[in-house]
Amino acid sequence: TALNNLPAATGGVTGYQPYQPYTILTTEDEATSGLVYRDLGNKYYEIKDHLGNVRVVVNDRKNLDPATGDLTAKVESYNSYYPFGMLQPNRHKDSKSYRYGFNGKEKDDEIKGEGNSIDFGSRTVYDSRLGRFTSLDPKARDYAGISPYAYAANNPILLIDKDGEGAEPPITGWYGVTREMFIKIVESQGWKLTRKPTESSKDFSRRYITTLGGIFEKNVLNILGLKKNTKPFYPYKYSNNYTVPDAVEVSRFQQISEEKLFGIFNQVEYALDFEDGIFFEAKFTTNVQFEQKFNKDQFRKQIDALSNVIDATRYEGTFFPEATKVKEKATEYGAAVLVLIVPSDAVIEDKLIEYATEKGVVVIRHDLQYTEDGDDTPGDFGGVKLRLSKGKYLNPEVVRQNSTEESRNQGSRIIGTPKDVKID
After folding, report:
1. Neighbours of 273 (CB within 10 A)
2. Is pLDDT larger for residue 331 or for residue 37?
3. Which residue from 300, 355, 362 is spatially nearest to 336, judged by alpha carbons?
4. Among 336, 372, 370, which residue's Cα sits nearest to residue 355?
5. 125 and 99 Cβ atoms separated by less than 8 Å
6. What are the residue ranges of helices labelled H in 99-191?
7. Which secondary-structure segment (H or E) carries 403?
8. Other Cβ atoms closer than 10 A to 339
9. How many other CB atoms are found less than 10 A from the CB of residue 266?
């Protein structure tokens, strides 16, 4: 017999549930109400270890044991890894329908066989048998004592190499803050907004979201240690159109010389600090559109303003003894940056990224994260500690393009900020 709408096993084969039937009752008689189905077997759940390695994958289809009537999860794949990610023989089961594994990265089994070739994004291919990337580390000069092809600084038990851009401890105990989750965090601290007697439901809803957006922005700036910006920027000549980013910072470009200082360190040939080269914008929405409903041209004006940044201070010589005011376009150095801080479930419209790329402006995304270990440090919110995720470049081709320009191709380049604000 069937159990919980599961088909009974036939021929000794374990039964399974391909569809989950449930009844929708209409205003008509129950006997005439329709029976609808929810398709199962297409949703996957990852079980990871502390390093982010996908160890087991199950889906939402249930297996039925015909002897006991017990239900168990349907396992799509399971994996046991050697430290550098090679699969252990006879201790894994692969699924052609699921492509992710070591470090949570996508596998490419067509190149070197099952689990041997892994896509790490910026570093492209990683060979788990060798424990080596097939391309040079872009930050090799920062790790002179380690092979530029090494994974996780040759310490895969304690460290991960999330995008192939540098070893770091795995993130544990930190979780993405969705828009709805942030509302619950704020309301759990006693915050409440009351509707005014003469206020329409539409106006109240807009005021509610606007107020929460202000709380979101305040916490983001607190975490960054930045003051709210009040300075207007006019991106177009002979026009009163202006934009006011949430926060503004100086961006820095450094040209690293091949020459060694004292025969040990790579010398900085020169540095450029671009005034107002970084705009920070906190958006409390799940849909970040290029043309927003209530501020249609905000991102267009901010990107255009960044593309026009030309005021810079040039520092030259050992330890920067000389400073000169110069006119240089920040976009030509990959130093015009728009930083978006959003809830973890936000989607940023491609049109925004495409326009920024066209204008030579780098776009970096940060998600808000939380842990339930709050204290008195910046970012604390009533027992819940908030922070920003590591920055993700949404158009890295802008940085690469300006890092390989033949007119300035000596040494490597470092794009960042001269202060302690971390955008990357």
Report:
1. 20
2. 331
3. 362
4. 336
5. no
6. 109-112, 179-188
7. helix 396-403
8. 24
9. 16
